[in-house]
Design a protein that fits this description.
Helix 1 crosses helix 3 (about 45-55), helix 1 (about 5-15) packs across helix 4 (about 75-85) and helix 6 crosses helix 7. The protein is mostly helical. It has a three-stranded antiparallel sheet. The model has no long low-confidence stretch (mean pLDDT about 85). It folds into two domains: about 5-85, Winged helix-like DNA-binding domain superfamily/Winged helix DNA-binding domain (Arc Repressor Mutant, subunit A), CATH 1.10.10.10; about 100-190. The termini are far apart. The protein has helices spanning about 5-15, 20-30, 45-55, 75-85, 100-105, 115-140, 145-190; strands at about 20, 55-60, 70-75. The protein is about 65% helix and about 5% strand.
Length: about 190
């Protein structure tokens, strides 16, 4: 069976949470990995069934009412998850930010295209940082969550870098952002 990142997302969430329905997986993803790993939520309904058919998840269904299906990790599923975690990551780091795509094509817009885009992105990244801060304030003192909070720390750093970039663009245009890049490149070589 070909396991995808969505497969491991489902296996990992169930591994952390314990037995879960697709709806519970969706809610858990929205409050955790959804901040840094966007994916179609419809996969949280089809993927668990596929993993159950492969023996990686056990499935139980309510006999009455909504007949909700709950999935739990099997030994085979736990081993597949552990094997995936042991593999070093060699893929290219990806950021899919539509604002970057718009910036790339901005010369086809009007004179205010870049400014409007920068204003919106500065507001967006400030909002994300505030949201991340609320999450850190709420969960930061719980020792058992330290590893799960590590991606949040990385997210804060990415947001800070993005905010700095868009602030440079807003304050001095693209030339200012390019000049700042030179300063950063020099700092990296020191």
């Amino acid at each position: 069976m070909n396991l995808t990142s969505s497969s491991y997302l489902v296996l990992g969430l169930i591994g952390l949470r314990g037995p879960s329905s697709s709806y519970q997986l969706k809610r858990a993803a929205d409050r955790s990995i959804g901040y840094f790993w966007p994916f179609p939520h419809s996969q949280l309904y089809g993927e668990p069934r596929r993993l159950a058919e492969a023996g990686l998840l056990a499935e139980s269904a309510e006999s009455g009412g909504r007949r909700r299906r709950t999935y739990s990790l099997t030994d085979k599923g736990r081993e597949a998850l552990r094997e995936w975690l042991r593999e070093p990551e060699a893929d290219v780091y990806q950021i899919r930010d539509e604002a970057e795509l718009k910036l790339f094509f901005s010369e086809l817009g009007d004179e205010s295209t870049v400014r409007r885009l920068a204003e919106a992105r500065v507001a967006f990244h400030r909002g994300r940082l505030a949201e991340f801060k609320r999450t850190m304030d709420r969960l930061g003192g719980i020792p058992d969550l330290e590893q799960r909070l590590a991606p949040l720390v990385l997210g804060v750093r990415v947001e800070l870098a993005s905010l700095a970039f868009w602030s440079d663009v807003l304050e001095g245009g693209l030339a200012a952002a390019r000049a700042r890049m030179g300063d950063l490149a020099e700092a990296l070589t020191d």
